[in-house]
Amino acid sequence: MKYLLLIHTPDPNSQAPGCEAPTVEEFMAYHKTITDAGVVLESNALDVEHVTSVVVRPDGERVVTDGPFAETRELVGGYYLIDVPDLDVAIDWAARCHGAPHGRMEVRTIWEPDFS
To answer: In the chain, what is the greatest distance between 2 CA atoms, to the nearest angstrom?
Structure first.
């Protein structure tokens, strides 16, 4: 099954003193481990500085704003698309990510409809 691991990280502008973010080296070590395991289909870091949100109102008007949700104190910093046997394995990979102790990992099942 395919799962999306979303890495939610604290907003660096609202980070509490003493709450250290994971280092690039920690993420690179995790990336090597998960890639070497052969479960990664795709992964990318996401630009957290240049974010645009689009909302389409019922009347069709587009509302475009800078940034993620207005009241958030965390950012989606990256993701891994993985292919593993089940949710328990996906959760294990999410827990091993260095972003987990500093923020939050979100695990989502990829819905693959049968169009045949």
So the answer is: 54
